[in-house]
Amino acid sequence: MSQQPHPLTLEVVDLMAKLVALFHKEYEEAAAARSLTGAQAKVLALLRRGPMPMRHIAQTLSCEPSNITGIVDRLETRGFVTREADPQDRRVKLVAATDSGREASEELRDSLNFAREPLAALSEEERATLRDLLRRMLEGAASS
Amino acid sequence: MSQQPHPLTLEVVDLMAKLVALFHKEYEEAAAARSLTGAQAKVLALLRRGPMPMRHIAQTLSCEPSNITGIVDRLETRGFVTREADPQDRRVKLVAATDSGREASEELRDSLNFAREPLAALSEEERATLRDLLRRMLEGAASS
DNA sequence: ATGAAAAGTTCACCTTGTCAAATGTTCAGC
DNA sequence: GCTGAACATTTGACAAGGTGAACTTTTCAT
């Protein structure tokens, strides 16, 4: 709690902050190009793996369940998502992406990959090194 | 525009998305601990380098100037920031951090450095490698 | 001098986010 | 079998972030 901020660490944090800002901006733009908001795109991306209870969405995105209600409402009126009661437990609603929702999400993801100019600056080997470092950093954190 | 998404690239993008989410969450929490919002903290961080016209803040954060008005309003009522007319051009207002604003921003920054658990998983040498890779990736992009 | 362009502000509006109070459902214990 | 606690979701009130359009003030080129 009282360690000197090491100059190298400080610089890495600074670079990461810039990269985060850049990534965030590009994600929002890619979503907006499909008239989705960032939050809607994130929910849609989660649902690519399959239907999911509201609660689980809220936990994964670290926000209140009541917040998800609104986001799913807006996705639902646009036909990107459906809500059905879970037969196992009728308290929970399973949110599932429609075909059109899945398609929008995958398009967005692919457009992101191609738009990733920063990554193009690295060779294949460097990208592998980066992948390993990022993996190590994320090992302790939450997943999916 | 039609290149196959290379699995390695895809994985790196995915890891970065997770890192971005993690970083973002920790930043918001660190800001909230000082009862600042993320946006307010970002503006305050920009002002550490010196006073700045509203317009410049908006450009740096890639948002509309009218948005900055509100954020600076809220920072101002809490005494973190002042607005004065630029003597050179009385259309522009120079926003400057007060001592208390600067202090809050620096505290936040330092708390971020120490809270950066993910980085602790890397050795000094690995952090240097990461720094170099990030630098390369950001070379083409906007700065500060 | 006049008029176009720039910087900020204001206003109306939407989305994200929180919290507290409802509703409906499940389930443990009796 | 009933009751009450716990749970998932929704609703409503509210604040902040974000946009776009209309307005004021100031600058500056002609």
Mean pLDDT of chain A: 90
- Quaternary state of this entry equals homodimer
Strands of the widest sheet of chain A, in order across it, are 1-3-2
Q: Work out the helix count of chain A.
A: 7
User: How many β-strand stretches of chain A?
Assistant: 3
- Biggest interface between chains: A-B, 48 and 49 residues
The residue fraction in helices of chain A comes out at 55-70%
Radius of gyration of chain A: 18 Å
CA distance, first residue to last residue of chain A:
30 Å
**How would you describe the shape of chain A?**
globular
Low-confidence stretches of chain A: none
Secondary-structure-based class of chain A equals mainly alpha
Beta-strand percent range of chain A: 5-15%
